[in-house]
Structure formats: structure tokens, C-alpha cells
Design brief:
The protein is α/β, with parallel strands linked by helices. Strands 1-2-3-4-5-7-10 form a seven-stranded mixed beta sheet, sandwiched between helices. The two termini are about 20 Å apart. Helix 1 runs parallel beside helix 2, helix 3 packs across helix 5 and helix 9 runs antiparallel to helix 10. It has eleven helices and ten strands.
């Protein structure tokens, strides 16, 4: 990062289950329950939701990580109390609301993964737009062995990354993917050596933060919806979004700079 991260102030500083800091246009939200392997409690899911509803106006990208040896070990089973069906549905819908605020929020989100990325932790990672994993990361969906089912959007998001058959295998057999297998299956886009996941995630987030906001919005909000539409509807939606993105003042300025030879050309790094 070109700037140092400093703790945020105000509402986001009061969230005791998270560490939230900012450097320039990038916000860093780190799960802060290392003694519990960053297991997601009701309080933690509420605080995650609070962050994404209250991002500072100057933030253009977010990095999500976990303190300690693991990204997130999933649902805090010590809080899994017996609920009637209605209450259980509402509990799951609360997770949906929080993770939808990530996937369809204000800015792109990069997940920096290490250690356990399990159950609800994988659901959280799947709600982010880009995933970086170090060599220590491993992925599991132990719900089948626990007698429960995914409830944080995993059945919708994870098959779109790795395929339905692979997810069924993980849930039915308890199969755990290591970092190599997770990359091959499509769970992550970037692999780095142990301990380098944050460095890579910050570099990606800084690059993302310098994109035109309307283009970032289109990629986050329009692209996943276009994929779900029929080809004819998708092409029409694409035309609408392309027109909206390319006719903002910032886009016009960027295009003019490129035509004047003042913008970098695409090269293989």
C-alpha cells in the first residue's frame, strides 16, 4: 500500500468483534475473534453488516481478513440454539442480508484467506468479489457432518464458483480442499505464499480503488445479474450499463487521456 492503515473513528471504531482501519481509499475489516478461530456469532454477523452499511464516503474498496491463525471457521456452534422453524428462517435471512450488503454493496471487496475457510467462513468469502488465499488456506463445508445445512447464501454462491457436484461432494463426505485444490476448483483467483495474503489483497484493492466508480458498480451489480438472464435480456442489460458507464464525466476524461497517449496501455506484468 502507498499509505499506512490507521484505525477508523466513529461508529466503526466501536465494533468490538472487528478491527477496522483505513489507508487512502481502502478499508480493512478484520474478524477479531482469534480464540474462537473467528467463528461467526450473531454479534459478529451484525457488526459485519454494520460496516458495509456505514462505509466512509471516500472508501472505494474493502479487504476482509481474519486475525490469528485462521480466516473464519464458520458458524459459532456454541450459539446454535434450538429455534422453531420461523426463528431459524429469520436467523438465516439475517446472514443473507449481511452478505448481500457485501456482494451488492457500494464497493468491491477482496477476501484475504488463510487457515480455515470453513462453513460460514466460506460463505463469507464467496460473497466477496475477489479471493486471495495463501498456502495455508483450506476449505470445508462440514454441515453434513453437523446435521445442519448452509444458511448464509452458500447454496447460491458457492456452486457458481466451484460447481454443484463439487459442493455436494464436500457437504456429503466432509471432503476438505487444500489451497491447491481450492484454486483449481475456482474458489480463489490468487494464490500466494504463507503470510502474503494481505499484501496481495491490499495491492489488488488499491488498484481496484482507482477504477471509475460507475464501472466498478457495473461489474458488481450488473455482471452477475446478466449471467443469470437469457442471452437477449443480458445483451440489452449490457447495452444499458455500457451506456451508463461510458458517459460519466470521469469515464470521458479517462478515454480522452487514453486517446491523448497519457494513459497506460495494457501489458502483461
Amino acid at each position: 500500500m502507498s499509505q499506512e492503515f490507521t484505525p477508523v473513528t466513529g461508529l466503526l471504531a466501536s465494533l468490538d468483534l472487528l478491527q477496522v482501519s483505513q489507508a487512502g481509499k481502502v478499508l480493512h475489516m478484520s474478524l477479531n475473534r482469534p480464540a474462537k478461530r473467528n467463528a461467526i456469532s450473531d454479534g459478529l454477523i451484525a457488526q459485519i453488516h454494520t460496516v458495509f452499511l456505514n462505509l466512509p464516503e471516500d472508501v472505494r474498496a474493502v479487504v476482509v481478513s481474519g486475525q490469528g491463525e485462521h480466516f473464519c471457521s464458520g458458524l459459532d456452534l456454541s450459539e446454535l440454539v434450538q429455534r422453531d422453524i420461523g426463528a431459524a428462517i429469520l436467523h438465516s435471512r439475517g446472514w443473507h442480508t449481511a452478505f448481500e450488503a457485501i456482494q451488492y454493496g457500494k464497493v468491491p471487496v477482496v477476501a484475504a484467506l488463510h487457515g480455515a475457510v470453513v462453513g460460514g467462513g466460506l460463505e463469507l468469502a464467496a460473497s466477496c468479489h475477489i479471493r486471495v488465499a495463501d498456502d495455508s488456506a483450506y476449505f470445508g463445508l462440514p454441515e453434513g457432518q453437523r446435521g445442519i445445512f448452509v444458511g448464509g447464501g452458500g447454496s447460491v454462491r458457492i456452486p457458481r464458483l466451484m460447481g454443484t457436484a463439487r459442493m455436494m461432494d464436500m457437504m456429503l463426505t466432509g471432503r476438505v480442499y487444500d489451497a491447491d485444490e481450492g484454486e483449481r476448483a475456482g474458489l480463489v483467483q490468487y494464490r500466494v505464499p504463507v503470510g502474503q495474503q494481505l499484501t496481495k489483497a491490499f495491492a489488488l484493492a488499491e488498484k481496484i480503488a482507482n477504477n471509475a466508480p460507475m464501472t466498478a458498480f457495473a461489474v458488481m451489480h450488473a455482471l452477475p445479474r446478466i449471467v443469470e438472464q437469457s442471452p437477449a435480456e443480458g445483451l440489452f442489460t449490457e447495452s444499458l450499463m455500457a451506456a451508463a458507464a461510458s458517459n460519466t464525466p470521469e469515464a470521458q476524461a479517462r478515454l480522452a487521456a487514453f486517446l491523448a497517449g497519457k494513459a497506460a496501455k495494457v501489458v502483461k506484468e
